[in-house]
Amino acid sequence: MILTERERAQRKLLGLLGRGVLFAVTSVAALAVLAIIFFIARDAWPFFQQHGAGAFFLSKAWYPAHATPQFGAAAIIAGSLLVTATAVVLAVPPGIFAALCLSDVLPFGVRQVVKPVIEVLAAIPSVAYGFFALVVLAPLLQDKGGRLLAAAWCVLAVPVLSLAAVVAGDLLTPERLKGLAYRLVRGLLTALFLTAGGAVGVWGWRALTALQVPSGVNALNASVILGVMALPTIISVSEDALQAAGRELREGSYALGATRAETLFKVVVPASVSGMFSAVLLGVMRALGETMVVWMASGNAAQIPKPWFNLLQPVRTLTATIAGDMGEADQMTGSAHYHVLFAMGLSLLVFSFACNLAGERIVARQRKRLRGG
Amino acid sequence: MMVMVAGALAGARTVCAQDKLALDGSTTVGPIAKAFAEYTMRQNQNVNITVSESGSGNGAKALLNGTCDIANLSRDLKESERQAMEQKGVKPVAHVVAYDGLPVIVHPSNRVKGLTLEQVRDIYTGKVTNWKQVGGADLPIVVISRDTNSGTFETFKELVLGKEAKICEGTEYTGSNGGVRQRVQMTKGAIGFAGLGFVDRSVKALEINGVAPSAETVVAKSYPISRELFMFTKGEPAPDGLVAAFIGLSRSEKGREIIEEIGFVPVPEKK
To answer: What is this model's ipTM?
Structure first.
């Protein structure tokens, strides 16, 4: 094909133009993020200037409406972390197992039906979850909280304690005993540990059934709902990661004589662990950034529970504080109350940013290791 | 009454040139002023009314400096404010536009019938933590409050807690009056407060210092957690002027409706 000088110039120009437009579109997204950071930081700065970072991060006295207002955010930051961490602890194990089940255990037809249904869960508006938390879960926790927790304890403790008893019995039996003596001692020890485990189990059951939950809107309520909200993200993204490990890998493993379980846990999971890590990270972000549910379900008390892991006490999170207080915090006069909310937004932003960055690093390292090994 | 107000507004347009009205002051009275302004401007296209909410103290200052025609206050003028106005030759005239009362509510099963104002304060500051300390069952008290930005909270803080008291840190905060009622009706140990219009049979309103909250006791001010809401003008407003018509709205049928809708108690009709 022969092009005249003019045609060539035209094509070059067009190419340049195309690239320019695409570049501009991409930069809009990046610039938007930078602009958000800039504007939040700009409004957060006056607070740190006036009150100092120490008063913000270390003090837990949150009295924004008092005659002499105090803006200590320590209890609120702790509340955010507590609720997020609990939600993640509750959501990650079932999420990962559900993903494994969907991708490698259940028949393909079932997966085709179940996965879209799970993804619909992610589309339910958060205020609907919040309403459920307030109207259904909170009274349930108040009236039957002890028994509910005791049931959860049973589901967790029975398998774990039995397994621990059997393993401990096996490990503690002296190696030098042979034959019948060995089996007898092991049996006795296992029985002993099982009894001890049973006692612990019953003690836990009794303690939990006797538990009175004075208020159903508390850290546990918010965490449970946040966990359920994070589940679809975790399941869907992990399942995609497991699928991405590929058919060749699985068939290669079977060809070497590995069983299905061996293939799953020793080949497929290690190959897709970085993707699953991203899934968990997305779940964390979902829980940390959620506002409506925690505003409705967490009780919004600016306190660190006593003891700190007492999930049955109300807590207040950064997101709920921003949402609840922004309406009336005086913007015109640039009050400290207004700026402290931006300081909270900035903390949230920095925290998510750090989390994401760390996640990227870990994922990248994992990929490199897999490629090398 | 409606006809009278409409007539007064029409008169304002023709008789005097004052078509602009500026209001400033309390965030509690603000919603009433805003609703009145909206209604007035819908009735009369030529009128322009602006309502700012910078707080009662700033409202008084604005009236003194002449930057507003009507100052909204959720309290009476302080002595210092009166003196400052007199020095400047401004004669403040108070107009009560509505009453504000906050019932303290508990779960219907609660044995406690009433509390003193002191006891309510002690519960909210965390000194009293169990119902048995105030004559109820052995049940931990779940303290519920409106969020600190609401006018309802402001009222409660001023009338119950006082300036220096700090609300206890385990207090739950809820974003609406309906939300407080919802939490209280579900929770056995709960105590909360909400506007008079939000209290129904699903919760129990406590007697405070022996007086049960109602529109009558709030207006009579025998119920302790109640107050008058004022609009202050510079001197007595001209009877056929816009200011008089605007404040007169609070005595009209439509005005009463608006006030009740927002959750306050309208001034009773004189018999």
So the answer is: 0.76
